[in-house]
Amino acid sequence: MPDVKRKRGRPATIDTHAAMQSLVELFRSKGYAAVSLDDLSDATGLSRPSLYRAFGNKLSMYIGAMDAFGDQVAETAVPALLAPGNLESALSNFYAAMLSIYYRDSEVAPGCLVFGTAPSSAEEAEIQARLEFGVTQLDQVMRDRIARAAPGRDNEAIEMSVDIAANTLIAFSARAKSGATKTSLERMGARSARAICALLDLS
User: Fold this and answer.
1) What does pLDDT average to over the chain?
2) Cβ(113)–Cβ(24) under 8 Å?
3) What's the topology of domain 66-199?
4) Stretch 90-118: mean pLDDT
5) Which residues contact residue 193 at a Cβ distance below 8 angstroms, ignoring those fewer than 6 apart?
6) Fewer CB in a 10 Å sphere around the end CB: N or C, the chain?
7) In this predicted structure, what is the pLDDT of residue 6?
8) Please, are residues 6 and 31 in contact by the beta-carbon 8 Å criterion?
9) Quick check: 60 and 154 in contact, CB under 8 A?
10) Rounded to 5, what percent of the chain is helix, strand, coil?
């Protein structure tokens, strides 16, 4: 009896954007090491083979999630920082935008994927490189905005201001995961913005 060739059906289309957003939420809630392949499959609704075809291995998925989270920051928070106006308002609006990313809603705060989970997984060279790149890029954006608002100020004052701004973000991530409310951290961001402007004699 001759073999009958069966026609293969068209493979199901994968919504890679939605799947990646699920990966972002999973990784920033549990970190890199604690996430299992079953967790990845459950979060995205995809089988392991489909996950591998779409995103590669677990490390590739995490790197992709870091990049997606960075894109969200670039699209949502950075424009607030770079907006025209005084530096205190720009920083306060930037912090508020970052907190809108950190919090799923008014009660649940998974925090920051980059500052919250990547440092604990930095033994992976690719994660370390991505973490360093992201931190350096964000520091430079803040440095340029602060320097533009305070022309003529010495480099030491500018760098101290960048340190305060960056450390505020790191504190947000830790405090959010420990139960701090979004409103309390918005107030903290506003105080940080005022402190930076006072340091630069802009208040």
Assistant:
1) 87
2) yes
3) Tetracycline Repressor; domain 2 (1.10.357)
4) 82
5) 87, 88, 89, 91, 92, 95
6) N
7) 45
8) no
9) no
10) 70, 0, 30
